[in-house]
Specification:
Radius of gyration: 32 Å
Shape: rod-shaped
Oligomer: single chain
Helix content: over 70%
Structural class: mainly alpha
Largest sheet: none
Order of helices and strands: HH
Number of helices: 2
Length: 80
């Protein structure tokens, strides 16, 4: 099967346009991969980081309450 004339002139032509076209193609593939694969994962990571921060705050509050309960239990034990 013969190559179409417009492709044959591109194939036989200078190397620089082929390199530029190849680099642009790689950039397009990279950008497409970012927007289709990595960007949604970044959104999920952000949501999980927010949840982790919320849980850390709840844990700190629980530690404070527990320390008060232990302190109060010690006071009550001393009263007995």
């Amino acid at each position: 099967m013969a190559t179409p004339a417009f492709l044959q002139t591109f194939i036989d032509g200078p190397k620089l346009p082929k390199v530029i076209l190849g680099v642009l193609g790689l950039v397009a593939i990279g950008a497409g991969g970012w927007f289709l694969l990595l960007a949604p994962v970044q959104v999920e990571i952000s949501a999980l980081e927010d949840r982790r921060q919320q849980l850390a705050t709840e844990l700190a509050t629980a530690h404070r309450v527990l320390s008060r309960v232990v302190e109060r239990a010690g006071e009550l034990r001393d009263e007995l």
